[in-house]
Amino acid sequence: MSTEVLERPELKDADTGPDMFHYVQKDKIAESAVMGTFVIALCGETFPVTKSPKPGSPVCPRCKEIYESMRG
């Protein structure tokens, strides 16, 4: 399964922006962005893709843990 850090910013405050981003299946990103379909993050969160993370963006710790365990 190919995954990429993306989306679902967990908002801590509307003025401060995203708190963290999640890992989702890479092949589902474009479809979600265009069609508005929901993706499922490794941690189980579901959401439509609306943003891409910038380098250094905070990542969901649960997604990161699952992703790293999958990589070996």
Characterize the structure shown.
With about 70 residues, the protein is of the alpha+beta class. The protein has two helices and six strands, in the order ββββαββα. The strands form three sheets. Strands 1-4 form a two-stranded antiparallel sheet. A two-stranded antiparallel ribbon has the order 2-3. A hairpin with a 3-residue loop joins β2 (about 10-15) and β3. It starts with a strand and ends with a helix. The relative contact order is 0.27.
Summarize the structure.
This protein has 72 residues and is α+β, with helices and mostly antiparallel strands. It has helices at residues 26-35, 61-71; strands at 3-6, 11-13, 17-18, 22-25, 38-40, 46-48.
Radius of gyration from the CA trace?
12 Å
Distance between the termini: 13 Å
Shape assignment = globular
Query: What is the number of strand segments?
Result: 6
How would a crystallographer describe the biggest sheet?
2 strands, antiparallel
Output mean pLDDT. 80
User: Helix amount, in percent?
Assistant: 25-40%
Regarding quaternary structure, how should these chains be classified? single chain
Kindly report the spatial arrangement of strands forming the biggest sheet. Answer: 1-4
Q: What structural class is derived from the secondary structure elements?
A: alpha+beta
Which segments are poorly predicted (pLDDT under 50) over 5 or more consecutive residues? 12-18
Query: What's the order of the H and E elements?
Result: EEEEHEEH
| Strand content bin | 25-35%
- Supply the number of helical segments: 2
